[in-house]
Amino acid sequence: MESAPFAQQLLGPWALDRLAAAMNSKEQEWNVFCSDARRNAFLIGDLSRNVYGSHYHLQIGGPGSLLPASYQPHDRLLVQVTGRQRILLISPDQAFSGLYPYPVHHLYDGFSMVNFEKPSLDIWSGFDHVKGQLVVMSAGDVLYIPPYWFVHEQLLDGTNTALWINLAPGLRPRDPIAIPLQVSRLLEERVAAAEGVPNVRHWLQLIGHGDEEHWVDLKTVVGYRRIVLAQEVRDELDLNTDMADSWEKLLPGFVDARLLLTPWLNQNFRERLYLLDKPVRLQDDRSEEERRYPELFRQRLEGENWQVPKHVSTLPIPGYNTPAAP
């Protein structure tokens, strides 16, 4: 292992011993065969990234294992090392017509909500019309997967080992079929920042049907901001899709059977077994100065490595959150 730094980084100093114990092997010496990392610059890097900005992920599993359909926003290479696996590729233009991806703020962001083995067609009615491309990967095969394509994996015979390589985006133009899924992520984040995560579905529905004017008071600052937000959502879709009034066609699909909060998804989530989750109460230890000037309290929390949400001003301040006057 000392002469194979790339394998050492992928597996760690303990992995081979544990694998040996799992396979009931008593061998003390292991030979790891890999290319010379010093001679091949593409394989040189730290624990997660090489000099080209790529990330590696080692995947090991047994026969019969299933990995739910998911997508990534970057190019990927799948290198099959040992065993075989069946890959189902589905283009991103079917994301909102049949795959129903989880919301951006959900813990399962990037995955399809549909159980491919036992789909509930009464809920996910569009899944019945989804079509994909099937490929069986054997040892030595390499598969390129474009950004935002859904990948469903089933590991077949033998011990299955594969290496995922995430590639830097480069300067290639965006694939038109992936733009709606890409823009939907941007819009969910933008609306959540303005109205809160629980209200994303509500406001995208209003904007998609052109009914937001009944929910705003133009005499207030909040009402003005909401009207601006609605127009920004429409403009984002029209500019990215090169279609007039594309928001009327796309926004209803963005919210269809989606953006519904699950019972265990909450702001202070810590335990996936929701019933076992117990609230944590911290004593208010702010000083008098920190009570008067919240920014001082924020700086102290950041100094203690707390994750403090970024402060967003609700008022336009020239030179701070709006362009300074010339």
TrEMBL record:
<protein>
    <recommendedName>
        <fullName>JmjC domain-containing protein</fullName>
    </recommendedName>
</protein>
<dbReference type="InterPro" id="IPR003347">
    <property type="entry name" value="JmjC_dom"/>
</dbReference>
<dbReference type="Pfam" id="PF13621">
    <property type="entry name" value="Cupin_8"/>
</dbReference>
<comment type="similarity">
    <text>Belongs to the JARID1 histone demethylase family.</text>
</comment>
<dbReference type="InterPro" id="IPR014710">
    <property type="entry name" value="RmlC-like_jellyroll"/>
</dbReference>
<feature type="domain" description="JmjC">
    <location>
        <begin position="24"/>
        <end position="188"/>
    </location>
</feature>
<dbReference type="InterPro" id="IPR041667">
    <property type="entry name" value="Cupin_8"/>
</dbReference>
